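Dear Dr. K.,

Following up on our conversation at the group meeting, I've run the structure prediction for Ribosomal protein S12, mitochondrial from Aegilops tauschii subsp. strangulata. I'm pasting the input sequence below exactly as I used it, so you can double-check it against your construct before we proceed with anything downstream. Let me know if the numbering doesn't match what you have in your notebook.
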Amino acid sequence: MPTKNQLIRHGREEKRCTDRTRASDQCPQKQGVCLRVSTRTPKKPNSALRKIAKVQLSNRHDIFAHIPGEGHNSQEHSIVLVRGGRVKDSPGVKSHRIRGVKDLLGILDRRKGRSKYGAERPKSK
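The predicted structure tokens came back this morning:
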């Protein structure tokens, strides 16, 4: 506990808050190039293989982005669009890639939640 004299001399230091969206430059989406595509296992209670990609954004930031949905056609040097949204059980993964835009294809034959996975409307008979 500082004395009154110490507070007069130095004052209190403001607590610095870190910016969670440094890489995005306050933009809703950013374009980037895939550097590496890999899988990663999630944190403790969960068990799976999360598909992630290291992406270099147009502002030269390198980030890890999650690839949502089942299956993907992504590989190195593919151009992708990245949005925000962290993956709770994968440390360091703070963004998602947008399906059905640029080089990342949407999911075929998906009927529910199609807009999130770039799936087209099924043909009705």
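Two things stood out to me. The chain has one helix and five strands. Strands lie at 29-40, 50-57, 62-66, 79-84, 93-97.

Best regards,
J.T.
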